[in-house]
Design a protein that fits this description.
The chain is α/β, with parallel strands linked by helices. The chain has 2 domains: 149 residues, HAD superfamily/HAD-like (Rossmann fold); 84 residues, Orthogonal Bundle (DNA polymerase, domain 1). Helix content is 46%, strand content 10%. The chain has a 6-stranded parallel beta sheet with strand order 3-2-1-4-5-6, sandwiched between helices. Strand 4, helix 11 and strand 5 form a beta-alpha-beta unit. Helix 2 crosses helix 3, helix 3 packs across helix 5 and helix 7 packs parallel to helix 12. InterPro entries: 2-HAD (IPR006328), HAD-like_sf (IPR036412), HAD-SF_hydro_IA (IPR006439), HAD_sf (IPR023214), S-2-haloacid_dehalogenase (IPR051540). It comes from Cupriavidus malaysiensis. Keywords: Hydrolase.
Length: 242
């Protein structure tokens, strides 16, 4: 570990969607009966992908200043309508209560098998918290369901901006009373880590090669010399002396 990062870092913050939890499998599972009920001939996993594709463009409207900050639950609900319309659904005929219920699929995501134990080990020595674009209630619901032992809930809604805006990383360090290098972002996404490193944060990459399904072609390996590269959260905890 470069420069014995375990002695420099005082807190680890985590990307959540894809890094800590398996969003694709769980959203597809929740969507399957909805799609069948409404006669939509699309595989649940393909629907989950279509919904997720709206994620970055929706946040870009906020990051650019063209739209004021709204929490991710709001964006997810709007993105759900766009995804369904793009798949040919007559969204006007679907009761709003059904759309609201499906939108909560993002609150019921399962952790990767190694997430909970690895976080519990890291918590013994470090402050641990999400640094997610998910809003506070969303992160709380996932944590309670999945047994994630966060010390705090941090991220986009606290800062009122979305990653990879520098403010999300820098203000999170300031909230914790830390210098940027004392805060380590753990993520399965090279782009997230690059934005954090540009702000002076320490970085740790954990590959999740099935986040986007068996045909995933991105983020299969570390693309820079991140401070730590680990196969899973168990190895991550070991590398940090936990």
């Amino acid at each position: 570990m470069a420069g014995d990062l375990s002695q420099t870092v005082r807190a680890l913050v985590f990307d959540v969607f894809g890094t800590v939890v398996d969003w694709r499998t769980c959203v597809a599972r929740e969507a399957a009966p909805f799609l069948a009920r409404h006669g939509l001939a699309v595989e649940p996993e393909a629907f989950a992908d279509a919904w997720r594709r709206e994620y970055v463009p929706a946040m870009a409207e906020v990051r650019s200043g063209r739209r004021g900050f709204v929490r991710l639950d709001v964006l997810h609900r709007e993105n759900l309508v766009r995804a369904l319309a793009g798949l040919g659904a007559d969204v006007a005929r679907i009761p709003g209560a059904e759309l609201d219920a499906l939108n909560l699929a993002w609150h019921r995501l399962d952790p990767w098998p190694d997430s909970r134990e690895g976080l519990q080990r890291l918590k013994q020595r470090f402050i641990i918290a999400p640094l997610s674009n998910g809003n506070i209630r969303l992160m709380v619901d996932i944590a309670k369901r999945a047994g994630l032992p966060w010390d705090a809930i941090l991220g986009a809604e606290v800062v009122r901006d979305y990653k990879p805006s520098p403010a999300v990383y820098l203000q999170t360090a300031e909230i914790l009373g830390l210098a940027p290098a004392e805060l380590c972002l753990v993520a399965a996404h090279n782009g997230d880590l690059a934005a954090a490193r540009a702000c002076g944060l320490s970085t740790a990459f954990v590959a999740r090669p099935r986040e986007h399904g068996p045909a995933q072609s991105t983020d299969l390996a570390a693309e820079q010399d991140w401070d730590v590269v680990a196969a899973d959260f168990g190895e991550l905890a070991q590398r940090f002396g936990c």
